[in-house]
Amino acid sequence: MMQKTEILIIGAGVIGICAAYYLTEKGYKVTVVDKGEVCSGCSYGNVGVAVPSICGTLASPGIISKSLKWLLDPESPFYIKPRFNRDLIGWLWEFQRACNEPQMRRGLSILHEFNTASVELFKDLAAQEKMDFGFVQKGLLVVFKSLPGFKEGVQEAELRQKIGIEAEIIRGSELRSFAPHLRSGLAGGIYYRRDAHLDPYKFVRRLAEKTRKKGAQILTSTEVIGFEIFGKAIKTVETTRGDFTADEVVLAAGAWSSEMSRYLGLKLPIQAAKGYSITYRLPENYLEMPVSLSETKVFITPLADTLRLGGTLELAGMDLSINKRRVNAILKTVPEYIDINIENLKLIEIWRGLRPCTPDGLPFLGRCRAINNFIVAAGHAMEGISLGPVTGQLVAQVIGNEKPSVDLSLMSIERFN
Fold first, then answer.
1. Per-residue pLDDT tens digits for 366-392
2. Taken in order 43, 46, 48, 49, is the CA torsion positive or negative?
3. CB burial class (10 A; 0-12, 13-18, 19+) of residue 183?
4. For the chain, which domains are there?
5. Rounded CA gap, 248 and 395, in Å?
6. pTM beyond cutoff 0.90
7. For residues 233 and 246, is the Cβ–Cβ distance under 8 A?
């Protein structure tokens, strides 16, 4: 039997659930489908930071030369597994084209605007829905081990200050008085006071429950296996639990969005970038804010009674295996910055997930020109949690034919065609 709904959302991660919430708020009848469970993908185990101050795109000047060096090191922050793959080659070609300063500045500006809007929406959700998801706005501390790294970080902070981002530069001798858990001898740090952190799993699961209570249907273990097109519209969405018809279809399937789009004859250049996190029981008297270990691209976030370490990007396709060498690379680097003995901490979980990365570091967000009832909200890379609320709100605005609260022109889903 054909199931009917006004809006069908593919994906029950942070983007899909946020979109469902804001659509039900506007009175739409919404159904969300996911081949797994709610928040079982990349939304589950990330470091949970909302960081308007250090947002930016992976594609930036100088990253190509760094990547060539990192390519030879399987423990590097950004690793590309050598393989011949046509989609990867095309993605890398567009990636190198995006590695220029004008494009980086445009990306920084729009992502800062997006992230700032999301932080305010997190506050609103916590207050209006009386949700406890560990939202804390105590800033972010970026620390540097080397003097050249610190100088580069200061230059980046000065660039961010030009678009209104507050940054406090802390010299190495002052760091331990600011954050006693840091090792002595570090070159310096930068404190961004407007940033925040939260428990991503609690946020998505609790928002999903609120959305259900508002009337949305969320169907798990329901995998999309095809589409039927009539004219310029999706007529039927075929799933392993039956077929659906909907006025509008929203694709929010993260790293799987590229595969889904192929069913429609579309091409979304999204590469899955595997990231890892390791969660421990929180040690006593630990810092109340996240810390970014700049040179190694590792984040350390306190989440209630746990401590989560996360990082690395590994372009290895849709491979969900755990590479112990990369996990160990995260663990090995932490004591170089933080005065902590990891072996004494109680391990809770080792996790990996696939982050959906576009070549220019900006998500795809908007309505498809070729299929007029198809909206894409995917490709948020490492900022899915951070950008979840504002993306959900924008999806609702696009479907309601309202003027988007944030300019979406740079996020066109046809921009690489």
1. 999 999 999 999 999 989 999 999 999
2. negative
3. middle
4. 56-85+136-195+271-357 (3.30.9.10)
5. 11
6. yes
7. no
